[in-house]
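Blackboard transcription, Thursday session:
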Amino acid sequence: MSSILVIAVPILQTNQTPYGPAVVSGILRQAGHETSVWDMNIDLYHHFRNEWNEIVDVFALRAVRGQDSHSKIMRRVLRYMRKQIRSRLADPNLDAVLLSVFSSHSLDAMIPITAYIREYRPDLYVLAGGRGLDNIEKTTGLAYADYYARYLPVNCWYVGDAENNLVSVLTQRHQGVFKSPPVAGKDIESVPPADWTGYDFTRYEGYATDSIRMPITGSKGCVRQCTFCDVASSWPKFVFRKGSDIGRELIDTYQRTGIRKFEFTDNLVNGSITNFREMNNTVVSELPDTLDYIGYAICRPRNEFPKSDFELARRAGASMFKVGIESGSEKVRHDMKKKFSNDDINWFAENCYDQGIRQLWLMFVGYPSESEQDFQDSLRLLERHRHLSHDGMVTVFLSLPMMLLTGSGFMRRYGEEYGLMHNTDDPLSDFFWTSHKYQDNTFQIRVDRWRRFIDAIYKYGFDDQTTRQAEKFLEIEGVEKTYRELYKDGKRIIPINTLTPHINKETHV
Amino acid sequence: MTPIDSFEDLHEFRSSKNNIHSISIEFQNKTGADTRVDEQGQIVEDLYLVIDNLNIDGHDLMPKISRISHYQTDQGIRTGTHNWMAFAGLLRIKLHRNLLYTLWMSSTV
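(Written on the board underneath:)
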């Protein structure tokens, strides 16, 4: 048995309780280890509240470094971090530290944190894991797990899901980079609930106003393998926990913490309809009309997902579904392997609306085979459902025009079928890809459709008020500028070559 | 001005328990006769040492040299560090044993 400290590495959102450490803590405790969780991020936030934006700038956004005003703040921040680490590591019984690196925003903080850990406790076994380590370090092209393994004093860099191998890696004191295969059904079935012991929820933004949401995972992966999407590269199969277990976790968490709002981390909450029903039934039988949850969902046909399912979901707490509609064209969705019809969309949209469940539709334009006619279908989709848009009942989030994502179906197997041209060494060609099969689908056409579609979103009242959408306006202007300067009229400083896979085959299918 | 001489050497450093390693460069025996000035007092010829390259494991440390070193003249004056030594004295470059920490700190604080 080990005594393990799990650290949530800054920078994280201050209105969200870090989920990774709670999940890991649950897994390790089930295996008989003693764990404690330290959210270093929320500590920093409360200690440096007035300077928080500057700290985020330096750590997460890598901006404004070296300016005197920020240097002074950062000296104080680092002194504080060092002192806190010393204090937290003082327990002589402690024999391992796990560092949870949630996203790219946590990567820089790893550098001083690991240095300070080693200053005080060179004897400790240190393991780092989390999706942040999957990011690519630009100068070397290596994943951060591999890059940091060259420099930082960490024993093990754990890449992939914790559910299947973390306990054995920790027990065996694995050294170096460990690449865990995607989690399988049997792994996730037996995964214990997240363990929130030691969290002080009152410290998170939104606790006092009942707006804080607890993360929860019911499944991993997706029931579709859409061509443009990269989910299947991480989880090739849809795997899920028993619906009754998920329902039980919702109830227990509410009863233990008093927090009634949840957000599913799943790619789909209703990937398995029977399981989704079982989860909702479990909640409704004990806590009807009490909880509130949001998550990603897929449109289901009326014969599979009757009206009663919408009512049941609402009573269990469903308050918003985020739905990847993607396109209003049935032909394009068929090409995407999305596999739902316009009738399925109507059924889902109208029934959610009737039950007071809000919807966020995720859309994009510029799919390789999208014609102007297909694009008009997308505009008609909005027009047809304009009566649902009032009071934010249905909002639409428009992503940037279609990009070729690393690990997407396009990159893995459909590149040739679509005649895609892309330079794997040039990240910008994720935007500026071309197709010798669909030559009319140029970057300029895609941007033009993007602007016409965003106009329609506003015209019909579907506008998403979040800053996330506002940021897309800035991003598209930036991408357009780059296109004009470097790519337009054949000014390609780097030739766009035929697409070739460039994913890490050890961790991705 | 043409350098009067150049010198190149390769050093190996072994890691120790101490977290901080230092590279010291001492510039000795420079006298007033090594600096020639014109009637306006402008230096027209001088003796100085140029550090042309500081690279560890492929990381170029030259842009960060002012942040990772101390330069003290024989007269005991601390002076700003650039990539040359024009005063007789000691330049000490300090490197944390964790190279990434050195690089990060030198661009952050």
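Lecturer's comment: Residues 68-88 of chain A form the longest helix (21 residues).
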